[in-house]
Amino acid sequence: MREYPIYLAPMEDVTDPAFRMLCKRYGADRVYTEFVNADALVRDIASTTRKLTIHDAERPVAIQIYGREPEAMADAARIVETAHPDFIDINFGCPVKKVAGKGAGAGLLRDVPKMLEITRAVVNAVHTPVTAKTRLGWDENLLYLEDGTPFIVDLAERLQDCGIQELAIHGRTRSQMYRGEADWTLIGEVKNNPRIHIPIIGNGDVCTPERAKECFERYGVDAIMVGRATFGAPWLFAEMKGLPAPKTMADKVAVLKEHVLASIAWCGNDERKGIVHSRRHFAASPVFKGLSDFKQTRIALLRAETVEDVFRMMDKIVEKWG
């Protein structure tokens, strides 16, 4: 397929440096950090400031911030800029209750004036290019304005007017969370709006090379963003871009092992903590899906707490099912 930009979506407890570096190696054109809480960053909370850790090898990299007050978001953006990311991204799309329910993330889809105020405040506070990520709307009742214009088409124009350099759109409403199918039709309407001149990034249910190609060709987006499909499969970018990728189960398990070790290093060489942190990846990895009589082996793998035990279990899996 043609060379198209494919980005790693920002995901909490997922897109740490260990995982970002693997995705970059396998062809991710841009990576995003985990969500950075603006209020916690301003208060200098150690666990939050640690999320500003980026490496030159993973560039271009975006640091994503979220919050509900313009002043705090502007202050946070200034702090983020000192880490020298390539982009500062504003999270207007996170649907989880602890974020959206408090008026941040996708919660701002119910308060567009404040969303725009935050955007202007962040853009005016920094010299780094500012981007944003959002959803189609709060719920299906707010997908269209009274004149029939799609909510997201109007919102995209207004965010563009505030000075953002790119807009990523997840093709679901907040109320959908991650249920149902992503609606790329509305993403395409934003991209094809003649008044939009900034790049539009599509996100949602891009899980295969075939779907990636379809989204580029059918909807005309400038880039796509891949999220949950990368769990336990950082090589997905290579597959989507036609680059060399691990083929056999043994090769893919070797990458998962490398990720475990990188996670341990990221967690201060705390073996158990690093393993627990990386479990979601081998729990969701397509490498282990569809294996017959795998349930008990899977449980044992997810209970293992030492590198020796995890690797031994993985080796047994390759020996039996590879």
Mean pLDDT: 96
The fraction of residues in strands falls at: 5-15%
Please tell me the total number of domains: 2
User: Superfamily at the CATH H level of the largest domain?
Assistant: Aldolase class I
Helical stretch count?
14
Spans where pLDDT lies below 50 across 5 or more residues: none
The string of secondary-structure elements, in order, is EHEHHEHEHHEHEHEHEHHHHH
| Proportion of helical residues | 40-55%
- Quickly give the structural class: alpha/beta
The geometry reads as globular
The rounded Rg comes to 20 Å
Explain what the structure shows.
The chain has 322 residues and is α/β, with parallel strands linked by helices. The mean pLDDT is 96. It has an eight-stranded parallel barrel with strand order 1-2-3-4-5-6-7-8, surrounded by six helices. The protein contains 14 helices and eight strands. It is globular and about 60 Å long. It folds into two domains: 6-241, Aldolase class I (TIM Barrel, Alpha-Beta Barrel), CATH 3.20.20.70; 249-321.
